Amino acid sequence: MNSQVSVVRKEKTSVSSKVKLFHVLNKYGMLFILIGLIILMSILSPTFLTTGNLLNIVRQMSVVGIVAIGVTMVIITTGIDLSSGSVIALVSVVVASFAHPDTYPVFIPILIGLGLGLLTGVINGTIISKAKIAPFIVTLGMMTAARGAALLFSDGRPIGNLSDSFKFIGQGMVLGVPVPIIIFALVGVVSYISLNKTKFGKYVYAIGGNEQAARIAGVNVDKYKIFVYGYAGLLSGLAGIILTSRIASGQPTAGVMYELDAIAAAVIGGTSLAGGIGTIGGTIVGALIIGVMNNGLDLMNVSPYWQQILKGVIITVAVFIDSRKNRKS
Question: Which residues contact 320 (CB under 8 A, 6 or more apart)?
Answer without folding.
Answer: none
